[in-house]
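Slide 14.
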Amino acid sequence: MTRTGPRAARHPAVLALIAWVVATPAAMLLPALADRNPFTPRGAVLPIAAGGLLLAAALALAAAWRGASRADALSGVCAGLLAAWVALALRNSLYGTPFGFAGLVGDEGRMSAMVTRYSATAVPTDGIVAGTPTEYPPLFPWLVGRIAALLGVPAWQLLGDAQILTISGAVLLTFMLWTRLVPAPAALAVAAAALVTFADPRKAHEVVALAVFIPWVAATFGRPPRGRLHWLPAGVLGGLIVATYLGFALWGAAGIIVLAWLAWRTSDDRRRYVSYLVKVVVVAAVTASWYVVPYGWALLREGGQMVSDQFPAPAITGEPFPFLTATPLGALQTIGLLGVVWYRRAAWWATPLLCLVASAYLYRAVAATRYIITGHTGLYYHTARMITVLLAIAGVLTIAHAAPGLIRRLATRDTIPHGLTATAVAGLIGWSAFTYWHAWTPPTSDIATTGGSRRYATLAHAEPRPGGALPRYAPARPTTRWFPVTPIRRTVTGVLGRGAAPRTLSYDERLFAFLPWPGYIAVDRTAASSTTHWDDRHAALTALAAVRDPAGFAAAAGKTRFGRIDVFILRAGPAAWTWRDVRFRPEQFAAAHFTVRMLPSDTVVAIRRDR
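Slide 15: predicted structure.
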């Protein structure tokens, strides 16, 4: 073995990866081995007990701080263990349920529909309206769906664990990417701060995209001391970010342009730098082309109806300045804001972070103005996720940059007290880990009234299975109404045959979370892709409901403007069968043209015979 082999093996990023690979399988299995109810104190504190081992490793880092190489190595091990511990904390919260956080409520149900869709096709298509190019970046659900198809298991059962491993991997990637830019202990502190700032498991794909995006911008468009990333991996990472979550690239675009311009101005070889940028952009475009090209072509050919940014989200009126909150995290972000301004000429990392923060606020201001005029938000309120993480990272780097000089000025001796910095890092890890555990662990009391992120852990245990059975530790409250997917599947396949995948109109989107059937239209207007033309489909559905003659209705259902409807799954009422606000009459579904079955939960299934 050459000298570079042992040296590479001792690199903190490699040690972090090794520690994570070794510890994560045990972390995922431990809750099942312990077999504890996560709603009880004994079950809930399992990750805290295991976290004591992580804290011991962090304290060992403090005890061994004398040598920089030893400190770097222990930082890597601690980062890998922290990432594995995150997997343990989240897996313990979901022990006893096959669902991810929030069950199938809201976006989690739509993500389940996407992974189920991709278990049946490798084409980037909408999760509900199959055959329509997807607007939402598909990489994460595509990977989960294809893995489910390879393993031969229902995709919805893999989603929770996939999100857990993605959050855990995001912690690891944060550390690994930042070790190229800053010392390993600082990278460890960055990973811990990012964890407590934004690591929502329901948005695991966003978390990992942001974890990569921030250091990618700094390493590609900034001026890091060790040099920029090579154009090939930089371009591949850029394309993967776009295919995972497009928002951060949009919100940071102005900052990236400014940063690239500043780097061009100070470049010794401007032509070479421009060539580098062109190569990065070309590789990124090729990497993301499997998603961007079909989506862009659909918009050019057919246009789109953007309705998803008309959702009246509570975050629209949320706090735009997170650094003003009177919390430890708010204080860290305040330090970060001051640091990126103060050190913008003295520290290389300050300018990239400042450009991204300013870019996010610029987007927010422009989009908010547009919202007032048009009613379209452009999802500007989601910029808060990016801003909070940026400022928390900036806070860590500001402290790491300023603390040594400040301590020397205040200390009564010439050298920094042994272990002081490492102890601060250990304290940050302990605080962030406990805060994260508390935020995503099911409550052990007052379950029905608990809000915030802990509510999502509860909903994961309240979601009924397709056949109606509840998860093992389902709480008495809150309850989630059962949508009879298994009876629906049996009814439809009993008429159309096994393997049938009929185009379906369903009043509940959970059907598509369990079954890869193509849908006619999404139920939630403000969650529909622009490529599906929700308003036009709704108008066609309203016109169809107005056809009173049973024969004419059946014929019209077979040839709407957007294709046929094979199966109607409607909510049964005393005088009408409804889909959202569209009312159908029972007599429209005459026995000569439809097979009709009444199912539990006030559900009626009408299967068109004339196919």
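Speaker note: DSSP finds 22 helices and six strands in the chain.
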